[in-house]
Write a structure and sequence with these properties.
Blueprint lengths: L1 H22 L1 H17 L3 H31 L3 H28 L4 H4 L17 H16 L3 H20 L5 H17 L6
Length: 198
C-alpha cells in the first residue's frame, strides 16, 4: 500500500511538472527565469553569505539527525529512538535515489546554463530538476516531524527546510519549479515511509 502511495505521489508530481513544461514551455520558463533574475538583482552581501551558510548546512543536518537519533537511542537504550533513526535515514536514502533518477531522466540544465541573464553566486554542477537540497531537507524535516510531532520539533524543522529550499533559488542554482518539485518529493517520500516509525 505504501509503495503504491509513493508511486502515485511521484507520478502526480513528476508527471505534472514535466508535462506542464512541455505543454507550454514559454509561460512556465519565462516565469522561472523572471523569478531567478529578480532574486539575483536583489541580492545583498549579508543575505548571500547567510544563504550560502544555510545551503551548506543541508548535508550536515541530513546526516546528523539520524546519527544523533541512533546515538541517543544506543546510549539511552531507547528502541523507539533507534527505530526513528532508521526511519529518517531510510526516507533520506530513498528520496536521494529518486531525486538522482529524475535528474538523469529529465536532464534540465541549471538556470545559469539555460539563460545567460541569470547570474549565480556559484556554478553548481549536474542537472537542475528537481532540487536535491530541497528534497533532502524536506525529507528530513517531514520524517523528523512525523516521528516527533511536537511544535518545537515541527516549527524549526520546516523553517530550516524552507530556508534551504529558498536558498537554492536565491543562489541562482535552481528554478522555483525545481525547488517546488524537490519539496513535494522529499515530503512525499517521508510520508510514504512513515510505517517505519515507532
Amino acid at each position: 500500500m505504501r509503495v503504491k502511495l509513493l508511486s502515485l505521489i511521484l507520478f502526480v508530481m513528476f508527471g505534472t511538472s514535466v508535462s506542464a513544461q512541455r505543454a507550454n514551455p514559454s509561460v512556465l520558463q519565462q516565469w522561472d527565469d523572471r523569478v531567478m533574475i529578480d532574486l539575483a538583482n536583489s541580492r545583498t552581501p549579508g543575505e548571500t553569505g547567510f544563504m550560502r551558510f544555510i545551503s551548506n548546512t543541508n548535508q550536515y543536518v541530513d546526516i546528523g539527525v539520524p546519527v544523533g537519533l541512533l546515538a541517543g537511542g544506543v546510549i539511552g537504550h531507547d528502541m523507539q529512538m533507534r527505530q526513528n533513526a532508521l526511519y529518517v535515514a531510510s526516507s533520506s536514502a530513498i528520496s536521494g535515489v529518486l531525486t538522482m533518477a529524475i535528474k538523469h531522466i529529465v536532464k534540465r540544465p541549471r538556470p545559469f546554463v539555460q539563460n545567460i541573464n541569470i547570474v549565480p553566486v556559484y556554478r553548481a554542477g549536474g542537472y537542475s530538476f528537481p532540487s536535491g537540497h530541497s528534497s533532502s531537507s524536506f525529507t528530513t524535516a517531514t520524517s523528523l516531524s512525523i516521528a516527533y510531532p511536537k511544535w518545537y520539533v515541527i516549527a524549526p524543522s520546516f523553517l530550516w527546510a524552507g530556508t534551504v529550499a529558498y536558498s537554492r533559488m536565491y543562489l541562482g542554482v535552481h528554478y522555483p519549479t525545481d525547488v517546488a518539485t524537490g519539496t513535494l518529493l522529499g515530503a512525499g517520500t517521508a510520508v510514504s515511509m512513515s510505517f517505519m516509525k515507532k
